[in-house]
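Section 5.1 Outputs to date
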Amino acid sequence: MRGRRIPLALPNTGTLHRKRNTYYLRGIIVITIVIFLFLQLHAFNFPESRDPLLTEPTNDSVDAILSMVPSVLHKFLTPKSRNQTLAANLQHNGTVLNGGGSVSFLDSYHPPNISEIKRQIAKYNDMQLVLNEYTFGPLQNDSVIIVIQVHTRIIYLRHLIVSLAQARDISRVLLIFSHDYYDEDINDLVQSIDFCKVIQIFYPYSIQTHLNEFPGVDPNDCPRDIKKDQAIIRKCNNALYPDLYGHYREAKFTQTKHHWWWKANRVFDQLEVTRYHTGLVLFLEEDHYVAEDFLYLLEMMQRRTVDLCPQCNILSLGTYLKTFNYYTYNSKSKQKSFSNQYASSSSSLISTNNLLGYHRNRKSLQLSSQSALKSNTNDQNSQNTKSYVGDTSPNSQQQQQHGTSSLITSSTSTTTKQSTSQTQGAQQTWSYHVLPSLYSVYQKVEVMPWISSKHNMGFAFNRTTWSSIRKCGKHFCSYDDYNWDWSLQHVSQQCLQRKLHAMIVKGPRVFHIGECGVHHKKKNCESNQVISKVQQVLRIARKSGQIFPKSLTLTVASLIKKTKLRKGNGGWGDRRDHELCLNMTLPIR
């Protein structure tokens, strides 16, 4: 008994338990890493699992664009001039004989002369014929009127019409096409619309019909850059009244402001079909493109103004996005990592590989400090010549005084001149990416004072707002700025008791597809790149269920500095322009 050992229980220190837990934890970490690497490898090897807009090369050919349009709408995209139509008829019916000889179809059609154009314009404006009214019924008071300002760019107009045709509830709309150039091919296109009511109106004081007289170019007009004392000695027109910067009018730049003011007066106060209409009037241009839910969203925004923004009197469907200023270079450098650029553009619609900003050539542009927005600092040692796209972002709307060498705009409505240097070398293409922060079933909107350079695309207001603007016609017509949108902002700041406030949709439903305009001249002004990319943006948004949102969510806009009163950009010092503009407010029916 003496040598027998009695086993005693040792205290439990938990060493084995801790070791066991450590093994389990390490195993979980290893399994997690393996799964993560497997998923990354799977995503890399199977591109269909990634965003097709980032992996698939863009095909901007005509066939590719047509493939994304319902076949029933191809007729709007098929170019067919009067000469082509007549030639087809002659070939179908055989040779046309005149006095025993054959007649060429080119000799059978002659464009109308100025006198005939004036007669046709007067005829259209007097008749006020509403096409398709028998099919779709009279205009209802709660229906939307869409006013489209048209110049000469029929290719962009074709795509706008196609986008309108695909919109929900478009049959309830009245489309008003306001022309400042009479073109029978454009007339044929507009009159072929069969999906809603249509009416055409023609600006009667166009340069086309007043070639050698005001408001066109009078032979006795003062040259733009002549000095005032020299103009007085010369006794040229309006010698006593140059603009703010000592320059005289240029007809081609004053027409757009005249046209916008005329069409607004015409639609609200002079057309019989719109006499009692109190609903929304949406303003578009020939080089815009709309999403299929733009009317749905516009109606939703109108309903929610009561609780989200009682002070709002303008609804804006088009939002300029900063990264629309960037191109993707189609070069070897395109293979570089996308992640850095993606992170830097998380609030934008477009994400690109190897972003190259469009910074202006400081030597060629002298921006006014009062009207220009600050641009990003660029590398002064860069060997690539920077090109400036314009028409796509508020940065491209940077205005400059009329007295400087060049003026910039971002849409045909903002009639400012542009000085560009085309990029040499690599081919340029667009790259778009739809982000959830812009398109969602809970669509984000924000509220802020109406800003001409940001909210002048795809905006709508009603008769009440127009009545207030019209009463301030003298401010609009005498303000020395030949941009209608800057003039409208001047009206809001200086005359309106109730300032213009806008509700802006964060995910654009109106896009600007125009590459060239009155002030934008490029070698390829009918490029399909932007059109193709906008189609892809909307296709991806549609497939992911991001259009036709269920509700609106009001987001807090960034702190906005109080807009300072500013001088105009000039170009509007001629007293004849003031008088013509004011005369447009006369209630003529």
